[in-house]
Amino acid sequence: MSNTAIIEIENLTKIFKNATEPAVNDISFSINRNEIFGLLGPNGAGKTTTISILCGLFVPTSGKVTIDGKNLHTESSSIKKIIGIVPQDIALYPTLSARENLEFYGSMYGMRGKDLKDKIETWLQKLGLIDAAKRKVSTYSGGMKRRVNLIAGVLHSPKILFLDEPTVGVDVQSRNVIIEHLKNINREGTTIIYTSHHMEEAEHFCTRVSIIDQGRILTQGTPAELISNNNGATNLETVFLNLTKRKLRD
Amino acid sequence: MMTKLLATVKKEILLLIRDKVGLSILFIMPMVLIFVMTLVQDSAFKTMNEKGIPVVFVNNDHDSLGILIEEGLRNNDLCNVSDSINGEKATAELAQKYVGEGKFLVGIIIPKGATDAIRKNVTQLVSETLNGPDSAAKKTTAAQDSVEITILIDPVAKKSFLISVTSNLREFISEVKTKIMFQTFSEQIAEVIPDKQNAPKNTYKKSQIITYKEVYASETEDKIVPNAVQHNVPAWTIFAMFFIAIPLSGSILKEKNEGSAFRLHTMPTPYLLLVNGKIIVYVMVCLIQFLLMLSVGQLFLPMLGLPALVLGNSIAGIFILTLATAFAATGYGVMVGTLATTEHQAAIMGSLSILLLSALGGIWVPSYVMPEVMRNISAWSPLNWSLEGFYKLFLRGGHVTDILSESVKLVIFFLATMTVSSIANRKKRTV
User: Fold this and answer.
1) ipTM surpassing 0.90
2) How many CB atoms lie within 10 A of CB B299?
3) What CATH number should be reported for the domain holding residue B105?
4) pLDDT, tens digit, for every residue of B49-73?
5) Residue B137 reports pLDDT greater than 60
6) What distance in Å separates residue A89's CA from the closest CA in chain B?
7) Number of structural domains in chain A
8) Which residue has the higher pLDDT, A29 or B172?
9) With the C-alpha atoms ordered B220, B223, B227, B232, is the resulting torsion angle positive or negative?
10) Most buried residue among A63, B69, B320, B388 by CB atoms closer than 10 A?
């Protein structure tokens, strides 16, 4: 494994109770510090399960995960302090305002006082939410909710940020704002692990990608490498379809 | 850790005060329940104890027996006696008709010549006693009939009501019989005493040497009379406190469904700390509920003509028991919220189980009227532990030491529910 690796995954397998096939099937890979690593795959490929294991939500059936030099199984509480997550579903309290939501989530990372308040104001300002900060989240548009969802994951300046389809269902304007800020976060030293169905977005956003299907890794490399290694492929979407085939997934 | 706990408490308070439906379930519903149930049960209580059981009395005797029974029934709080129906003198036929229609629960018909018949029977008995079985009196009254008093019964009347009326009736008849017996004895003895001036008078009255009085075995300084308020206010308050399981489990499942729980599990905050925030807020809600219910019992129910709630002697006991009940109720809510997978499931599971536990616990019907099997089951309901504790404080004038066993059982129940929740939560994550 590389010395610069911040996440190292060895032979990771997850079989859910009563399932006939493993959701994640003996995968091994590492993610380097400061990378924007894309985990791409069709529905049910095992992306969200992998991210959930890395965040400590699911216990793997077998395999070893090391994050920032710490064993996920034995040191999950100290790992949780350095990670942030932006889940696919909006994980906010709809009857609380954006500011109230962020105050609560920030406190759960041990932030408090002026530091917490300043960071909330800065982020609300950056993502164009300052005027709506007092309104209940339930009154927000989809794009606004996505932006608050993002802030809740980055407020504590995590070393590693997991993004599970962070731009799904938002307009082009909101998507551009989100992607720009994610690039800034990465420039400031945060490693990003990203899943998406937007191949074009992944091609331009990720420094390295891994294509996963049926719980197994099919290929891995920089977007440019994957395109050049696949005959006739002109973009990441063609590579993706060549590898995962055109059959519809549930 | 304290910052996180305070943030969780603040978040829970905000969520709660913005949930109007949840708030109405927590505060308005139990107050309405106490008003309605106390008024309904108080009116049933009054039918028996204040207005009395409606009885129609037909006196065809017009002599000692009829007069004494009527007098006895009229002086008895249990009965509300009428000897006329719609302004008409009550007859056997009218009584039969109106009892059959449910206008009266009981009808009593004293036949013509009843006193005379008793008198003749008693005279014969006294004569036999004094003169021997071959006396002439025996020959003259040998064919004497027994007295038959008819009791008409409304088929819907409760058996306990009828037993009360008939046992009173038996007491009056026995009293009349004894009185006549004493009079006859006195008359016969007077005949054999040469100095008639010294013949015994008022013998029956003098013979009433045994009396009884009813005293409630309570240690309270104030006189506490068991009534609908003393029973219903603690009972429905406990019910309301346990009903907290529905909004609480709903809040846990909302967090799961809205994704907040997903995010919270990825944070460096232990599950117990997150749950503790909820417990603190909902225990506070239970205490506020309790204060509100007490104020209803003490201030508002008297405005409706009901007796005011009397709290007994131990404020410390009330506080300890209320706190223990609040923890048990909150723990139960956390357990339901953890075990259920959807809000709908939690609402059904929560409401049905609380209805069941409250029925078993003696909230709807006191456990002492239940069959033995049910009484044994009832002893396992946490609502019953709490209710028994409040009965000790409110009705028996108990102190802190008297409710310790109930409080300890409630705290153990809380710890058990928290253990189950913690295990279930861990298990769900190792799917």
Assistant:
1) no
2) 11
3) 3.40.1710
4) 556 778 899 999 888 888 888 888 8
5) no
6) 6
7) 1
8) A29
9) negative
10) B69
Nearest to A181 by CA among A130, A125, A126, A131: A126
Domain that holds residue B127: 54-207
Q: Nearest-CA distance from A55 to chain B in Å? A: 6
Contact residues, chain B, for A90 at CB < 8 Å? 258-259
Residue numbers in A near B3 (CB within 8 A):
107, 110, 112
- Are A103 and A66 spatial neighbours (Cβ–Cβ below 8 Å)? no
Choice among A106-110, A235-239, B168-172 with the minimum mean pLDDT: B168-172
Side chain identity at residue A190, one-letter code: T
Q: Per mean pLDDT, which range of B212-226, B309-323, B374-388 is the poorest?
A: B212-226
- Give the single-character DSSP code of B28: I
Identify residue B58 by its one-letter amino acid code. Answer: V
- The per-residue pLDDT for A2 is 44
Nearest to residue B30, comparing CAs of B286, B277, B265?
B286
User: Which residue in the block uniquely carries the two structure tokens 């029934």?
Assistant: B73
| B212: in domain | no
> In whole angstroms, what is the distance from residue A132 CA to residue A69 CA?
40
Residues 6+ apart with CB under 8 A from A120: A99, A102, A103, A106, A151, A155
Beta strands in chain A (DSSP E): 5-14, 24-32, 36-40, 62-67, 70-71, 83-86, 160-164, 191-196, 208-213, 216-221
On the question of pLDDT at B105 being above 60, the answer is yes
A116-to-A81, A107, B397 alpha-carbon distances in Å? 15, 8, 53
The answer to whether A187 touches A218, Cβ cutoff 8 Å, is no
- Classify B408 in phi/psi space as left (phi over 0), alpha (psi -120 to 50) or beta: alpha
State pLDDT tens for residues A31-89.
999 999 999 988 888 888 999 999 888 889 999 999 999 998 888 888 999 999 998 88
Asked whether residue A250 is domain-assigned, the answer is no
Q: Which CATH number goes with the domain that contains A91?
A: 3.40.50.300
Residue of A nearest to B251 (CA): A93
> For residue B396, which amino acid is it?
R
- Scan for tokens 């009433």, then name that residue: B208
CB A68 within 8 A of CB A160: yes
Task: Convert A138-162 to b/e letters by CB count within 10 Å (16 or more is b).
Answer: eebeebbbbbbbbbbbbbbebbbbb
Bridging pattern class, strands A5-14 and A24-32: antiparallel
Interface probe with A: pick from B1, B10, B19, B267, most Cβ of A within 10 Å? B267
With respect to residue A86, please indicate whether it lies within any of the assigned structural domains: yes
Chain B contact set for A94 (CB, 8 A)? 258
- Cβ atoms of B148 and B109 within 8 Å: the answer is no
pLDDT given for residue B198 in this prediction: 60
**For the stretch B309-343, what's the b/e string if a residue is b when 16 or more beta carbons lie within 10 angstroms of its beta carbon?**
bbbbbbeebbebbbbbbbbbbbbbbbbbbbbbeeb
The two structure tokens encoding residue B151: 């009791």
pLDDT tens per residue across span B239-281: 989 988 888 998 899 888 888 888 888 888 888 888 899 999 9
Q: What percent of chain B has pLDDT over 90?
A: 22
Cα A116 from chain centre? 23
Q: Per the structure, how many domains does chain B have? A: 2
